[in-house]
Amino acid sequence: MTITLEQAQTIVRAALEHGTEQGFNPLTVAVLDPGGALVALGRQDGSGHLRPDIAVAKAWGVLGLGMTNRAIAARAADSPEFFTSVATLAGGRILSVPGGVFIRDGEGRLLGAVGVTGDLSLNDEAAALAGIAAAGLVAETGAED
Amino acid sequence: MTITLEQAQTIVRAALEHGTEQGFNPLTVAVLDPGGALVALGRQDGSGHLRPDIAVAKAWGVLGLGMTNRAIAARAADSPEFFTSVATLAGGRILSVPGGVFIRDGEGRLLGAVGVTGDLSLNDEAAALAGIAAAGLVAETGAED
Amino acid sequence: MTITLEQAQTIVRAALEHGTEQGFNPLTVAVLDPGGALVALGRQDGSGHLRPDIAVAKAWGVLGLGMTNRAIAARAADSPEFFTSVATLAGGRILSVPGGVFIRDGEGRLLGAVGVTGDLSLNDEAAALAGIAAAGLVAETGAED
Amino acid sequence: MTITLEQAQTIVRAALEHGTEQGFNPLTVAVLDPGGALVALGRQDGSGHLRPDIAVAKAWGVLGLGMTNRAIAARAADSPEFFTSVATLAGGRILSVPGGVFIRDGEGRLLGAVGVTGDLSLNDEAAALAGIAAAGLVAETGAED
């Protein structure tokens, strides 16, 4: 199972539109397959040149560890050394802040992850959720309801 | 001057459509700004997981050297050592085969570059040209007319 | 839009002169285009051999994130893990101390950034401001007035 | 012994002027001290974003091996494997083509090296020689008289 290009493009478009509607800073949105490879990416005009790498990292890290951002943050709080080593192993592609979100289908199967960066982390995450919803898919952030 | 997200998305969409219409293998298309940062990327279902890096490399290399693929190929034929060193300096992001194309506006100003990978190099390049034409912009490949 | 070589050379020269006039330690000054590539660099006699990399990093990081040093410092204080990962992603080319300054034209368009290192960070920043003023351009540091 | 900033800036300026006068492509010129650290760099408008790395590499390699470009080229012809390994060790900062030139004082003492890139290698080298001559210093290229 993996996300399709069409689904990924819908997520990118809808996440960016959410940011524009909400008046967020320019965003970059990356959608990755379960193996951590890019399927689609869009960077709004004015979003800095490192933002594609950060957007990829947000999604790559949750896939790489199989842990949500919040679970990664809890682990980093328990053991900063663990976080430092794993972030280095990953070439920096592990982030503990919100904005990397698992994408699942209606039966809970993993299709990939989306990473959003450019504004406050919770705003980045909100844009990711808007994108996933627009594609008719299910998001998992690790936030408690 | 830099390409806009909207122009970049048009190029990705039209280049992928060209590949589908022509019956090419699944393609990956990357559009970069003049500094070599991603603006938009799309990978068709079935295109391998290294393809995003290759698509980026095709565009990154022509921008980094300010030379078309064909000029890079000629330089590599003259001096394989030059190519080896420069490809290493670039982290591999220099390719001498067709499929990395400069994007210019109607007055010749550099807006970025597009890289396409997945089929024969000349087919990749044809998809890039179709994408740039769809955005109303001007392509430079280094091929003689 | 990008800074010209002539503007960049004026910034380097004037920033270094400012340091000499003020009795600062030997400085290194780097001017980068908006994509993060060097346009001009000068290292004063006695400035250590890592200083060129630090000067580049100060400018590269603000461009890469689209955030001033002070905004980066605030983000790092909120989330040290974010800083760790992003600095690794950037190969260390993100610094949170003053001395990396955006360069804009009179209409606010981004032309690049200057990085200065060698003395106290606020002195480095003062040299950057002197350089940008000498070129008739506009500086953005993130400091409150 | 090491080159001064003033000498290095003279070399950069005169090498770039030579290129302009001769109608060369846009050039990038880097001057390094004997330890391989940048002292001064200038990149002309339109020179690609990888050119600073290439200019540095041309100078860094001759200093790192203590061999001229031509001696490196001869060694690479004898043993391509040697070249490949050393270029990788150096992160690509070894080039066998002309354009990296030792800078010596009137008594033959090593002060550093200059690297020039952007046009044909022999033109790059001619610009380096013009720069070194303008600073009243002595060039060593490895070319036979």
From TrEMBL, chains A, B, C, D:
Q: Which Pfam families match?
A: HbpS-like (PF03928)
Query: What's the name of the protein?
Result: Heme-binding protein
Locate the transmembrane regions by residue number: none
Which Gene3D superfamilies did the record assign?
Haem-degrading domain
Q: Which domain of life is it from?
A: Bacteria
